[in-house]
Amino acid sequence: MTVHPLQRLLAYGRDYRVRIGQAIACSILNKLFDLAPPALIGAAVDVVVRQEDSLIAQLGVRDIFSQLVVLAILTFVTWGLESLFQYAYDRLWRNLAQTFEHDLRLDAYNHLQNLEMAYFEERSTGGLMSILSDDINQLERFLDVGANDILQVSTTVVVVGATFIVLAPSVSWAAIVPIPVIVVGSIAFQRTLAPRYAEVREKVSLLNGQLANNLSGMATVKSFTAEAYEAKRIERYSNDYRQSNGRAIALSAAFVPLIRFVILVGFTGILLFGGMAAVEGTLAVGTYSLLVFLTQRLLWPLTRLGQTLDLYQRAMASVTRVMNLLDTEIAIHPGDRPLPVESVKGEIEFKDVTFAYRDRAPVVENLSFQVRAGQTIAIVGATGSGKSTLVKLLLRLYEVRSGRITLDGIDIQDLQLQDLRRAIALVSQDVFLFHGTVAENIAYGNFDANRDQIVAAATIAEAHEFVSKLPQGYDTIVGERGQKLSGGQRQRIAIARAIIKDPPILILDEATSAVDNETEAAIARSLDRIVQNRTTIAIAHRLSTIRHADRIYVMERGRLVEWGTHDELLDRPGIYANLWRVQTGVKV
C-alpha cells in the first residue's frame, strides 16, 4: 500500500510535535481574533439601530456611549491579540521550516553517504543535488506559508459556518452551499495537479544533472569546441522543464477564476436573501451587517486555496523524492566489531572471492591470495582485469558476492566500517582534491594535524618545495578538484594526505601512471620511505615502479594467473615477462 507523502512527512516530523502544536495553536487563535472585527461591526450597528435594546444593553450596559466604549476596548484588545498571534505563528512556522529543512537535509545527506557506490554510479550528481537542495527548499516554502494558510482557511470555514447556522439558519445556505463545491473542486484539482508536479520535479532533476555534468567537464567541452552542442542540450532540458511547469501552471492558474464564480453565487445570495429578511424584520440589521462581512471573510480567502494547493503539491512531490532517498536500503552493513587502528597488524587475505557489478559478468572470480603484515605486494594486469576492484572490495565500497576478505584474521564484514577504513589509506590515480587550501587538503588525512605535521608530511611526499613556491604557500586555494595544480602536484598532495593519516595499510592504485618521469622519480622516492613498516598493496601498469615488491600478482579476466617475485616472473615465459619486454624493450 502506497503511503501518502504527507503521512510520511508527519511521521518524520514526530520530534517536532510540540513546536508544530504551538504553531497550529497560534495560527488558529490569530484567525479567531481576525474574525472578531466583523462581529464588533455588527454589534456597533446593533447599538446604533436598537440603542438601549441592543445585545450589549441586554448584558447590563444601558448607556449608549458606554456601549460604544466597551466596543472600542474590545476592538483594541482584539486587534492587539490578533497582531500578537500573527507575530507568534509567523515566527514559529518560519523557524520550524528552517529547522525542518536543516535536519532533513542533514539526514538525507548522511543517509546518502552510507549508501554503496553502485547507487551513485546509477544516478547523476546533479539529480542528487536537486533532491538535497531544491526539493527540500520546496518543503521549506510550504511550511513557511502554506501550512498556516490551510489552518486559517479551515478555521474560517468552521467558525463562520457555525456562526451563520446559529444566527441566520434561514439564509445561511447561501454562504454554505458553495463550500462543498469549492472543497470537492480543490480535491479534484489537487489530484490532477499531483502528477504534473511530479513531472516538474523529474525534469528539473534532469536539468540539474546535465548542468552539473557540463560544469565539471568544462575543459572537455572547450577542447572539443562543443559549446554550441552543450548549449543546445541545456536548452532542450530547460525547455522540457519549462513546458512541464507550463502544463502545471495552466491548470493551477485556472483554479482561482473558476472558484470566484462559485464564491460570487454565495455572496450575492446573502446580499439578496439576507437583505430581504432584514427588510421584513426577521433578521436584525446588525446581524445582516455581520453576515455580509463574514461572507467575505468566509468565501474570499478560498480564492487563495489554489495558490496554497499549488505550494502543497510542489512540496508533496518533493517530499516523495526526499523520502524515497531516505527509504533507500543501505546495502553495506556497518559491522559491529571494533578494531582500533593501533592494534592493526595489516595481514590481509582474500579467500575464494567472487564479485560482479550489477547486471554484469563477474569481474573477480574465485580469487585467493594472502598479504603478510608489513609486506609490499603488487598487482598487475591489463585494463579491466579486476585490479582496482580488489581495492574497492577491501575498502568495502562494494560487498563480495561470495568468499570472504579478512584483516588480521577477522572477516572485514564483521569489522566496524569506520575502523576498517581508518586503517587504510588510498592513493588513487584519479586524485580528488577539495576546493580549499593545500593545507586543508593534506590535513584531510588527519583533521587534528597541526601546521608542523602538515609540512612534515608534505616534505616526505616531496611536495614541500613546490608548495612553498605557490602564491600563498600552504594557504593557496587549489580550486575545485585541484584544477589549479598539475597532475604530479595533485598526486604528491594525495601522498602527503596518506602520510599524515599514518595507516597500517597503504594502497597505491596507479599512483604514478599519469605523471612524467621526473615526477615519477620524486614520487617513487617518497613511496620508498612511506611503505616502510606497513602493509602495502600497489596496483600498477608501469612494472618498473613495482619491481622491488615482495610479491607480484598478475591478473587476467578476474583471476590470478601468475605470482612470484620480479626475478621469478621474468624467468617464466608468461604474461609478466611479456609485459616487461614490451615496456622496456629488453628481451627476456
Automatic annotation (TrEMBL):
What keyword terms does UniProt attach to this protein? ATP-binding, Membrane, Nucleotide-binding, Transmembrane, Transmembrane helix, Transport
Q: Which Pfam families match?
A: ABC_membrane, ABC_tran
Q: Where is the signal peptide?
A: none
What membrane topology is given?
Multi-pass membrane protein
Task: Name the residues that span the membrane.
Answer: 64-85, 173-193, 248-267
Task: Tell me which domain of life the UniProt entry assigns to the organism this sequence originates from.
Answer: Bacteria
Q: The ABC transporter domain covers which part of the protein?
A: 348-582
- The reply to whether Transmembrane figures as a keyword in the UniProt entry is yes
Its Gene Ontology cellular component terms are: plasma membrane
Q: Major location, coarse class?
A: membrane
| MF terms (GO), sorted A to Z | ABC-type oligopeptide transporter activity; ATP binding; ATP hydrolysis activity
Please state where this protein is localized.
Cell membrane
Span of domain ABC transmembrane type-1: 23-314
Cited SMART domains: AAA
Q: What PANTHER family does UniProt report for this protein, alphabetically?
A: ATP-BINDING CASSETTE SUB-FAMILY B MEMBER 10, MITOCHONDRIAL, ATP-DEPENDENT PERMEASE MDL1, MITOCHONDRIAL
What is the designated name of this protein? ABC transporter ATP-binding protein
Question: What organism is this sequence from?
Answer: Oxynema aestuarii AP17
